[in-house]
Design goal:
This is ATP phosphoribosyltransferase. By secondary structure, the chain is of the alpha/beta class. The protein has 10 helices and 12 strands. The two termini are 27 Å apart. It binds adenosine-5'-triphosphate and 1-O-pyrophosphono-5-O-phosphono-alpha-D-ribofuranose. The site of 1-O-pyrophosphono-5-O-phosphono-alpha-D-ribofuranose has 9 residues, from strand 10 and helix 9.
């Protein structure tokens, strides 16, 4: 059976990913020309590489069209419900670090925790004429964190596909959920992370789609061990 591993073809994870495969003794060779979206691994017969974007990789692992992928944990957990049942996080790779956080305007001096935010949400409509509005592209993680973990139900999500940190100043949302790495975008937009507002500490992971056909397949174990040995 052919095992397909999806790795980033572009973006911030591409180079680190190629380096890890190199260290793992799994050098990737493109098949066909430079612009090809397929590759193979030298010395690993029956393994195929698919070059995709990080967000496509999480989708393809979710629907089982690839066996393994390297992508951010945030994208995997946002992309599917019950991620741990459907995929295995085989290794955390030590790059692509980003925290998914809840951030509010710095001038909200009385709001430092999720409990404070819950209090604000409770009478937000009475005070401001609309429900507390959260700009994010992480709607699944936001709902889980706000509703299930913190019991906050009175809020509305507006989907933001770019420049999320600008939404409060632009008036299109009150607060945001987004990723941060250095924190400079949040600071530049006068936003602060709530003290218990880190939803997920994400990094690039080797992720396996849980498939029956993997059981007892020595190549599956060999790939996982090789990548782990490179960490
Ligand atoms: N500063 C950062 N900004 C955005 N993503 C980051 C950052 N640091 C690490 N990451 C991680 O990188 C991954 C996203 O990578 P990238 O933007 O290359 O992929 P993509 O979303 O597929 O790209 P595109 O938006 O072009 O489709 C996410 O898992 C994210 O957590
Ligand atoms: O905490 P920081 O170091 O400031 O990084 C966080 C920012 O970086 C990303 O945007 P970026 O413009 O890099 O790329 P994107 O197109 O993937 O959102 C991300 O969406 C945040 O806005």
């Amino acid at each position: 059976m052919t095992i397909t591993i999806a790795i980033p073809s572009k973006g911030r994870m591409k180079d680190d990913c190629a380096a890890i495969f190199e260290r793992a003794g799994m050098p990737i060779v493109a098949v066909g020309n430079d612009r090809s979206y397929r590759g193979r691994v030298e010395g690993f017969e029956g393994v195929e590489i698919a070059f995709l974007s990080a967000s496509e990789i999480s989708r393809e692992i979710g629907n089982g069209s690839v066996d393994f992928g390297i992508t951010g944990e945030d994208l995997v957990r946002e992309g599917m419900a019950e991620a741990d049942r459907r995929v295995e996080f085989c290794a955390r790779l030590g790059f692509g670090h980003a925290d998914v956080v809840v951030a509010v305007p710095e001038i909200w001096l009385d709001v430092d925790t999720m409990a404070d935010l819950g209090d604000v949400a409770a009478d937000f409509r009475a005070r401001h004429g609309h429900r507390l509005t959260v700009a994010t592209k992480y709607w699944r993680l936001t709902q889980q964190f706000f509703s299930s973990q913190h019991g906050i139900q009175l809020y509305r999500i507006v989907e933001s596909l770019g420049a999320t940190e600008g939404a409060p100043a632009a008036g299109s949302a009150d607060i945001i959920v987004d990723i941060t790495s250095t924190g400079s975008t949040l600071r530049a937009n006068h936003l602060k992370v709530l003290s218990d507002g880190v939803i997920l500490r994400s990094e690039a992971c080797l992720v396996r789609a849980r498939k029956e056909s993997h059981n007892g397949d020595p190549m599956v174990e060999r790939i996982i061990s090789a990548v782990r040995s490179a960490l």
